[in-house]
Design a protein that fits this description.
single chain, alpha/beta, Arc Repressor Mutant, subunit A, D-Maltodextrin-Binding Protein, domain 2, 3 domains, 7-stranded mixed beta sheet, two-stranded antiparallel sheet, 10 helices, 42% helix, rod-shaped, DNA-binding, LysR family transcriptional regulator
Length: 302
């Protein structure tokens, strides 16, 4: 006998017959014909290899084999009902987990605000968050360790567009020490910063992205100071050691009296901020709901 032969439909009919003592009553309760109930019980008896009911003029009653099966059948049906309820909880977002990833500056405002909206609507869902570069987040997403990642196409321009959900285009501002000769300008020409040292993360993709932007403006940037953390970058800018690019998403968190943030001219550079959804999570109710919150917050910030 194989476990899959214990069809829940047959077990449910078996329990109904045992409880009601009649094929006719069980048929009426389940919306079947009496012959359909008889066929179901016969199929279960064939699967078990024993008679489960003793038929008589006054109805039916379980045989010893039927009595032995009855508590197991009830337990299986209860467990199945619990399983259905648990999955319904996930579908209704009463419970579950949402595994998120985001690059650092997305965690300054975009992700926290979206998480706050999500928590207010679905307090039973537990979010987890991992921070990293776009490359690292996409690898985690592909490996099934994340359900959704907020990524930037600034450093990975070859991301397939079909795998991404647009959120916003984030402007890149230049951070200058408050005493910089160009600090009073409303917009700072990029080529006017050719003589400044640039502070950039010590990562090949970050240096390459900065170099590409500066070379398009006619100069090659000097990058003697390589640091990754924003608090370190801004401390060096405040001390007059150079300038750096700051995403608008991080502008509020980067505000300090000894540093000014200015748009660049003649064209304002931007980076595309997108949400990438794991293949395994495309039908996840939690992911779908959180994407709505991300879009709403992105529209506010944009």
């Amino acid at each position: 006998m194989r476990a899959e032969s214990l069809d829940p439909l047959l077990l449910r009919t078996f329990v109904a017959v045992a409880d009601l003592g009649s094929f006719t009553a069980a048929a009426a309760a389940g919306g079947y014909t009496q012959s359909a109930v008889s066929r179901q019980i016969a199929a279960l008896e064939d699967a078990c290899g024993v008679e489960l009911f003793a038929r008589g003029a006054r109805g039916v009653r379980p045989t010893p084999a039927g009595e032995h099966l009855l508590p197991h059948a009830r337990a299986l049906l209860d467990r199945l009902a619990d399983t259905v309820q648990a999955m319904e909880g996930l579908r209704r977002l009463d419970t579950g987990t949402l595994r998120l990833g985001a690059f650092p500056t997305a965690n300054a405002a975009l992700v926290p605000r979206a998480l706050a909206r999500f928590r207010a609507r679905h307090p039973g869902v537990r979010p987890t968050l991992r921070e990293g570069t776009t490359d690292r987040l996409l690898a985690m997403l592909d490996g099934g360790d994340l359900d959704l990642a907020v990524v930037s196409t600034h450093t990975v321009p070859a991301l397939p567009a079909g795998d991404l959900v647009p959120l916003l285009d984030d402007a890149l501002l230049v951070a200058l020490p408050s005493g910089h000769p160009l600090a009073a300008r409303r917009r700072v020409p990029l080529d006017a910063l050719a003589g400044d040292a640039w502070i950039v993360a010590d990562a090949p993709e970050a240096v390459a992205a900065l170099r590409a932007r500066c070379e398009a403006a006619g100069f090659e940037p000097r990058t003697p100071l390589r640091v990754a953390e924003w608090i370190s970058k801004l401390g060096l800018v405040a001390g007059g050691f150079g300038v750096t690019l700051v995403p608008a998403l991080a502008a509020a968190a980067a505000a300090r009296p000894d540093v000014v943030l200015r748009p660049l001219a003649p064209e304002q550079p931007t980076r595309a901020v997108r949400a990438a959804v794991g293949r395994h999570a495309r039908r996840s109710p939690a992911v779908t709901a959180f994407l709505d919150d991300l879009r709403a917050v992105a529209a506010e910030l944009g």
